[in-house]
Amino acid sequence: MLETRVVINGMEPCDPEVIEKTPTLTRIANPIHYPLDQLLTMFLLAERGGCIVHAAGVHRNGRGIACIGRSGAGKTTLMALLEGRADLDRLSDDRLILRAGEPSLVSGTPWAGEGMVAANDTAELAALVFLHQGTTHDLSAIAPREAAAQLLPTTSIPWFDEPAMTGCLATLDRLVRDTPAFNLQFSLDGGVADLIDRLI
Predict the structure, then answer these.
(1) Per DSSP, what are the bridge partners of residue 108?
(2) Could you tell me if 40 and 156 are in contact, meaning their C-beta atoms sit under 8 angstroms apart?
(3) Which residues in 131-145 are b (16+ Cβ under 10 Å) and which e?
(4) Looking at the 3D structure of the chain, how many domains does it have?
(5) Residue 17: φ, ψ to 5°
(6) Among 43, 95, 156, 157, which one has the highest count of C-beta atoms within 10 angstroms of its own C-beta?
(7) Alpha helices, DSSP H, located in the chain
C-alpha cells in the first residue's frame, strides 16, 4: 500500500493516518469531534469578543441577521420557509457565532440542525431577531434589556471559568446595546420572508 504524504512549506504537519483521499479530494480528517469542538470554540471566543448562540441566520450583500431561539422556537422551520430564495443566503439553522465589534459580525458554524444548513460564511450583523411561532406575522422592536433576557439563555456560556464567563457576558452586553433587536412572530404561510427583507 502506498503511503500518502501531505507536505506544506517543506513540512509534514499530519500523520498519514489522518489524511483522507478520494479520486477528487484530499483532506485532513478532523480529530476533534462534537461536542468537544464546540466547547473549545466557546472558550476561544469567550475572551475574544465572540460567542456561540442557538440561532438560525441569513445574509444578503454582506449584511445578516441572527434569528435566535431555543429548541422548538422555529429556527429550522424559518430556514425551510426561506429555502430557494435567490436573494438570501442561509448561514445556519441551529447555531451561529456572533462577534461584537465595529462592525459586529454573524457567522455560520459546522453544527447544523435538522435542516442541515451550515455555511462557512460571515456577514455584518444587522439585527438580533428573537423567534416566536404564531398564527400571524408580526415584527416589533424591543429594548436592550428585553433582548438580553432572551439572548442569555440561548448562548453557550462557560459559567465554570470566571475569565471566560466574564468575557462572554461582556460580549452579550455589547451586542444588545449596539445591535437593533426585534421579536418576530411568524406563521407557516411563507410571508415571513417580507419581514426578513425589511431587516436586511
Answers:
(1) 96
(2) no
(3) beeeeebebeebebe
(4) 2
(5) -70, -20
(6) 95
(7) 36-46, 75-82, 144-151, 162-178, 192-199
Grid coordinates belonging to 82: 426561506
Per-residue pLDDT tens digits for 7-38: 444 444 556 666 778 888 777 666 777 788 89
Maximum Cα–Cα distance for the chain, whole Å?
Answer: 64
Gyration radius (Cα) of the chain, Å: 19
Using a 10 angstrom Cβ sphere, with 0-12 exposed, 13-18 middle and 19 or more buried, the burial of residue 65 is buried
CB 199 within 8 A of CB 182: yes
Q: Which residues lie below 8 Å from residue 91, measured CB to CB, with a gap of 6+? A: 56, 57, 58, 59, 64, 106, 107, 108, 117, 119, 121, 123
Q: Give the tens place of pLDDT for each residue, 71-94.
A: 888 899 889 888 888 888 999 999
84 and 41 co-located in one domain? yes
Beta-carbon contacts of 109 under 8 Å, excluding residues fewer than 6 positions away, are: 41, 52, 92, 95, 96, 97, 118
